[in-house]
Amino acid sequence: MYYDLNLKFNNNLEELLNESRRLGFSGVAIIQSSKKFKKDYIHDLKEFKVAKQMDIYSGVEIAARSVNDLKKKISSLRKKVDVLIVQGGRVKINRAACEDPRVDIISQPNKKRRDCGLNHILSKEAAKNQVAVEININSILQSRYSYRSKLFSQYRDILKLHEKFKFPIIITSAGTSIYDLRKPRDIIRLTQCFGMKKHDSVNSMTNSPTNILKRSKIRPEMIVNGVRDICTTDN
Amino acid sequence: MKLKILPSSLRHKKRYIAFEGISESYLNREDVISILWENSLNLFGECKTSNFNLWVMKIWNKKTVKNSNNFFITGIIQCKREEVDNVRAVIASVAWYKGKRVVFHTLGISGTIKSASEKFIK
């Protein structure tokens, strides 16, 4: 059961869903940008889910300018979607995302940086709050020469921290067209190029997404962290 | 004079990878060779690529789907048995060729050309 939790919303959505199903993904999440978020679109996804007989989830990617902006956007969008992704890059945003249990995935913490964007403190927080760190296949495919080798070295640093602190890692395609999608087993081989172990790669496309989706399902029943309302009686 | 063929114990063990490709432009065998070599050299460098024994055996151009600008091909690549994983990574890393989008997917791996084409191509 392979999942791709970051497919970008575009006009050729049907083609994208057909292709991802053909390649062997049993579930995908369609991610909208927080700037152009449309709630009606989530109803369309439910129709697709029935038509394609495939697990299709809704999601949003938050690109925040500041920590306050991030918190505001998380509060307003969390209940509307299944998967919430925060676009990383700046240290303060990375830290705020790792410290917030409402965040599912931190995307590209290394964006426009020379280091990997995570340290031991952020890694501990990410592990504590179960915030998954994304490894983006599209950024590998779109880069070449020195840019690609720097990206590999940043991913190696993330994997080193993952081995020590055990925060979840997730591999996504971040695809916008059929040309960005790859078969899960091809992705596993590609991730081995920067030293990711096979069982880690498989876990990050099977177990980690499943855990995120499970948590998202039970989130409305959660009263506070660790307490869940399992039986509500109507009086 | 042709060299005498090596005994089977001294020959490299081969594997045949069946693949499919989708592209925005028409691709022939030379294009596929140049795509694979270029991406292999980019991803692994000259030193490691020399160990792959890459060889494009055959390419089949398939009919394009109606109302679609995409071209479909299938083919078989020969490589060393020990390097199959790395060649798969090369196949997955293909994204662009001459400014047009290209994508290759592995269909399967086999020990002979016959079984590769029977199982995965036909």
Short description:
The complex is a heterodimer of chains A (235) and B (122). Chain A has 235 residues and is of the alpha/beta class.
Q: If you had to describe this structure to a student in words, what would you say it looks like?
A:
The complex is a heterodimer of chains A (235) and B (122). With 235 residues, chain A is α/β, with parallel strands linked by helices. Chain A has one domain (2-220): Metal-dependent hydrolases (TIM Barrel). In chain A, 46% of the residues lie in helices and 20% in strands. In chain A, helix 4 packs parallel to helix 5 and helix 8 (184-192) packs across helix 9 (198-205). The mean pLDDT of chain A is 92. Chain B has 122 residues and is α+β, with helices and mostly antiparallel strands. Chain B has 3 helices and 5 strands. A 5-stranded antiparallel beta sheet of chain B has the order 2-3-1-5-4, sandwiched between helices. The longest helix of chain B has 21 residues, at 29-49. The radius of gyration of chain B is 15 Å and the shape is globular. The relative contact order of chain B is 0.28. At the A-B interface, helix 6 and helix 8 of A face helix 1, helix 2 and strand 5 of B.
What is the assigned CATH homologous superfamily of chain A? Metal-dependent hydrolases
Q: Output the CATH homologous superfamily of chain B.
A: Ribonuclease P, Pop5 subunit
* Alpha carbon gap, first and last residue of chain B: 38 Å
Query: Biggest interface and its residues per chain?
Result: A-B, 21 and 18 residues
In the predicted model, the low-confidence regions of chain A spanning at least 5 consecutive residues are none
Overall residue-averaged pLDDT value of chain B: 93
Give the neighbour order of strands across the main sheet of chain B. 2-3-1-5-4
Write the layout of secondary structure elements.
The complex is a heterodimer of chains A (235) and B (122).
Chain A: E1 2-8, H1 13-22, E2 25-33, H2 40-52, E3 55-62, H3 67-77, E4 83-87, H4 91-99, E5 105-107, H5 120-129, E6 132-136, H6 137-142, H7 145-165, E7 169-172, H8 184-192, H9 198-205, H10 207-218, E8 222-224, E9 227-228
Parallel strand pairs in A: 1-2, 2-3, 3-4, 4-5, 5-6, 6-7
Antiparallel strand pairs in A: 8-9
Helix pairs in contact in A: 4-5, 8-9
Chain B: E1 14-23, H1 29-49, E2 55-62, E3 71-80, H2 84-93, E4 96-97, E5 100-110, H3 113-121
Helix pairs in contact in B: 1-2
